[in-house]
Specification:
Blueprint: H1 3-35, H2 44-52, E1 61-65, H3 71-79, E2 83-88, H4 91-103, E3 109-113, E4 126-129, H5 133-138, H6 140-145, E5 152-156, E6 167-171, E7 178-182
Amino acid sequence: MTLNEVLYILLIIVELTFLIGASVYIIFLIYSWLKGAPYVATRMKSIKTILENTEITDGQHIVELGSGDGRFLIEVAKQYNITGVGVDINPIPLLIARLRARMQKIHTVSFHLQDIRETDLKKADIIYIFLFPKLVNKIKLQLTKNTKKGALIISHGFQIDYLKKYHTKTVEGDTFKTYFYKMS
């Protein structure tokens, strides 16, 4: 076999690997879309604005529902001594979140492959959500009955109508508004 033939075969293998990887990514993206929310990352500029408007203290427990690549939770953990859990149904962004946390030596957060409807919110001091309203409506009981008194729910992008009485502020963003709800 000549060198050109070997290079040609290697090129075919690289192309096939890329196509298989892209196909798997698209399948999981469609799967998460069908389950209620596709992976859409919160912009870092938005995270900084949200954190400037959130009173976070060391020792708090934060849950990120639909965490994707975990950028919100990782950013909070870099700035505060918190514990956190990120939950998502799409394994590819979760893998990225785990790798990012490990590379940045953040050991106080974990990321779980789980349906958000099965997530325990009872210990959460702060719950961060960037999900479509239809999916947020499916966790109404969790947010209204299974959160502790004083928990802060941050919804980026969409109002949560059934939490209107707990609304404390709205922060204008460059792309989306962010809504804050303090449970009482």
